[in-house]
Design brief:
single chain; alpha/beta; Arc Repressor Mutant, subunit A; D-Maltodextrin-Binding Protein, domain 2; 10 helices; elongated
Length: 308
C-alpha cells in the first residue's frame, strides 16, 4: 500500500470516473487503474462498483476511502513539518478574500509575496464569509482573509490588522462640521449601507444599535463608490473601512470624519482549518501582509465590531 495508490483511489472516488481521475492526477488512465487495482488486491476487497456510471463506492469502500483521506492528510502534514523545518515555502494554495477587503489589500501584498515566494502557486477567489467557511470545511479552500471573530470551533483565526471605520459626510449634511463622529450621531442619520451578503453590513448594524429600526437604512448598495456618489447627491452619509477611504479622490477626502476613541474597527484575519497542513505558506502570507500593513494603518485604541 502506498500514498500514491491512496491518492489515485481518492481521485476515482471524487470524480466517479477513471479517465477523469487520471487526467486530474496527471497520469495515464492505465497507470491509475493498475495502482487502484493493486490496492484492492492487497486489501482483498472491491472499493468500487465498476459497472455503474458514474462509478460508485462500495459500502466497505466508503470506510476505506474515509481512512485513506486521514492517511493522506497525515502524510501531507508530515511533509509540511519537514518543509517548515527546512524553511521551504512552495506548492499550490487556494486563498479566499472577502469582497470589501480584496480591492484594497490584494494590490498591497500580492506582488511582494509572489516575488518573495515564487514556488507558491496562488489561486485567489473573491468570496463572502459564509462561502469561505463552507469551502474551508469542505477542503476546497486552504485559507481566507476576512472579518473576525467568527466563533467557529473548526477554524483558527490569526488577526493580521485592525481597520478603523471612517465616516463619509458630504458638505450638505448636518454632521459635516463636527470634529469627530460619536456612535450616537449615527442613530438618527440616514446611512447608505452596503447590501445583504457582506459582513460589513452586519458590522454597521452592530455599530449603531442592534435594535435600530431598519428604516434608517434607506439605500443598500453593492459598492462603496456608489454609496459615496449617492452621499454627494444629498441622500445621506456612509461609513467606509479606512483603506477604502484612502483610495477616494483628494477633493472628496475633505468629507472624511474620524470617530472618537475608542474608534470602531473591523478585525481582519487569516483564517484556516485546524486540520490545515500547508502551514509554511500560511505563515509566509501572514508575515508579508502584516509587515506591509503595519506601516499603512494606525490601529491604537480601537473597538472591534462583530461581523455576525
Amino acid at each position: 500500500m502506498t500514498i500514491v495508490q491512496l491518492n489515485y483511489t481518492l481521485a476515482v472516488a471524487k470524480y466517479g470516473n477513471f479517465t477523469l481521475a487520471a487526467e486530474k492526477s496527471n497520469v495515464t488512465q492505465p497507470t491509475l487503474s493498475m495502482q487502484v487495482q493493486k490496492l484492492e488486491d492487497e486489501l482483498g476487497v472491491s472499493i468500487f462498483k465498476r459497472n455503474t456510471k458514474p462509478i460508485k463506492v462500495t459500502a466497505l469502500g466508503e470506510k476505506i476511502i474515509s481512512q485513506a483521506k486521514k492517511i493522506v492528510e497525515e502524510s501531507q502534514k508530515m511533509k509540511s513539518l519537514i518543509d517548515q523545518n527546512r524553511g521551504i515555502v512552495e506548492g499550490d494554495f487556494k486563498l479566499g478574500i472577502i469582497p470589501t477587503v480584496m480591492p484594497t489589500l490584494l494590490p498591497l501584498f500580492l506582488n511582494t509575496f509572489l516575488k518573495k515566494f515564487p514556488k507558491v502557486s496562488l489561486k485567489i477567489d473573491e468570496l463572502n464569509i459564509q462561502n469561505s467557511i463552507d469551502q474551508i470545511i469542505d477542503e476546497r479552500l486552504d485559507a481566507f482573509i476576512g472579518a473576525t471573530p467568527l466563533n467557529n470551533s473548526k477554524l483558527i483565526e490569526n488577526p493580521i490588522y485592525y481597520e478603523p471605520f471612517v465616516g463619509y459626510i458630504p458638505q450638505n449634511h448636518p454632521l459635516h462640521s463636527i470634529e469627530k463622529l460619536d456612535i450616537s450621531d449615527l442613530e438618527s442619520s440616514k446611512i447608505l449601507i452596503i447590501k445583504d451578503g457582506h459582513c460589513f453590513r452586519n458590522q454597521i448594524f452592530n455599530l449603531c444599535n442592534t435594535n435600530l429600526d431598519d428604516s434608517f437604512f434607506k439605500i443598500k448598495s453593492g459598492s462603496f463608490k456608489t454609496m459615496i456618489n449617492l452621499a454627494d447627491e444629498g441622500l445621506g452619509m456612509t461609513i467606509l473601512p479606512y483603506m477604502h477611504s484612502q483610495s477616494i479622490p483628494n477633493n472628496k477626502k475633505l468629507n472624511l470624519i474620524n470617530f472618537k476613541d475608542p474608534v470602531p474597527a473591523r478585525e481582519i484575519s487569516l483564517i484556516y482549518s485546524k486540520s490545515q497542513f500547508k502551514l509554511p505558506i500560511i505563515y509566509a502570507l501572514n508575515k508579508v501582509i502584516h509587515e506591509i500593513i503595519r506601516g499603512t494603518i494606525q490601529s491604537e485604541n480601537v473597538k472591534v465590531i462583530s461581523p455576525q
